Amino acid sequence: MSESIVPPEVRPKPAVPAKPPHVAAPSPTAPHGPSGLGGGVGVDRVPGLGHSGGGSTLLGYIGIDTIIEQMRKKTMKAGFDFNIMIVGHSGLGKSTLVNTLFKSQVSRWSSGWGGEHKIPKTVEIKAVSHVIEEGGVKMKLTVIDTPGFGDQINNENCWDPISKYINEQYEKFLKEEVNIARKKRIPDTRVHCCLYFISPTGHSLRQLDIEFMKHLSRVVNIIPVIAKSDTMTPDEKNEFKHRVRKELETYGIEYYPQNEFDDDMEDKNENDKIREAMPFAVVGSDKEFQVNSKRVLGRKTAWGVVEVENPNHCEFALLRDFLIRSHLQDLKEVTHNIHYETYRARRLNDNGDV
Ligand code: GDP
Ligand code: MG
């Protein structure tokens, strides 16, 4: 027979797991180890590690689970970067939606800006950063606006400046990474997510939408959304969503969360549900109204208030939960592990000289 294999240790969960014993105030009644547990079934002493005497620490809590708390503290101190790009032709409510998402004026190029709304001659790229703090966690949010996209008569290759910007941020990161004297923490300006605004035409995607998403989905996480969905009836909206999904599939456009990057079955099931509900049909507003004695963000119409966060009115809440509450970290990871990695490998292959 081969040597005996030591099975992984099974340690019982402590009855009161909060702190390692030496931190807790001494209590006269504190028992040594997990007493009263019926002889510690499944708990073995590790040979060679046992002390004589008390020995109770070996039977008890190690504290591996405090890693989560340690990570939390570090993350809270360091804060994190999140960079979101908004693309779509002017007037689709991009600035309004981002302000709605982050409940503050994080995007400054709303249509009211500077009086008359001037359409730039080419696609401009404007990044504005804000530090948002909630529950002691600091997020440096950068909103990258792309005014002028799709506004020209000839929109040929109008995604070039956008793709150039995205690649430039990868290049910046790569340069920092290969530096001999590296920064302890490399500032992350890479675009983690690109919200692509689809016009609520009720027809189909425009050629430009298809071209843009086709080109850019290889380098960045694209999340398509249907803008100003309050302009469609529920039936029209569902039909349009269905058609857009079909078209995206026909043209082989991989939007986020991409099938191929699902981690496991649980992840796949969760993401399948999201993919089936996409593209989210959203409504944005930064104005509050009183509805049933509650203040809500909404758009007041002659026949009532469209409540932005009411799931019966639009899918803003779904988008917000998905983007911020469930997938923010994953967006960052896919950016780093897939998109940036692809860029990096290609760049180092082309010429090792960065
Ligand atoms: P941007 O050019 O894409 O940044 O669009 P803006 O956010 O500046 O919005 C353009 C106009 O559309 C403004 O008058 C907004 O009040 C309005 N708007 C924004 N979001 C919505 C929406 O969800 N539904 C409707 N009906 N109008 C919207
Ligand atoms: Mg704008």
Automatic annotation (TrEMBL):
Region described as Disordered: 1-48
Septin-type G domain location: 78-350
PROSITE patterns reported in the protein's UniProt record: G_SEPTIN (PS51719)
Gene3D superfamilies, per database record: P-loop containing nucleotide triphosphate hydrolases
Pfam families: Septin
Keywords of the record: GTP-binding, Nucleotide-binding
CDD domains, A to Z: CDC_Septin
The UniProt record lists the keyword Repeat: no
Similarity field: Belongs to the TRAFAC class TrmE-Era-EngA-EngB-Septin-like GTPase superfamily. Septin GTPase family.
Annotated protein name in UniProt: Neuronal-specific septin-3 isoform X2
Organism whose genome encodes this protein: Salmo salar (Atlantic salmon)
